[in-house]
Amino acid sequence: MQRPLFFVDGPDSSVYPVLKAEVEAELVYLIDMQDAQGAWYPNWNWGQYDEVWEELKPEIAAMVTANNLLSLRKFCAIQ
Length: 79
Known about the structure:
The chain is 54% helix and 0% strand. The protein is an all-alpha fold.
């Protein structure tokens, strides 16, 4: 499944007017899915190499969190 924010980099994007409702819904979803510590953790796993996955999961969470925070900031959903 592709997310609207994969296609819309910011409010100045040429496709933003077309996907505005979808982008805004995704921003609300991101805020709702943020955990109490302010992070987002992967909602997937590799299905193999479980020990390596557990070791890398915090790093992947950091990348996901940084990307989500940047998206929220670009659209003024956070300060």
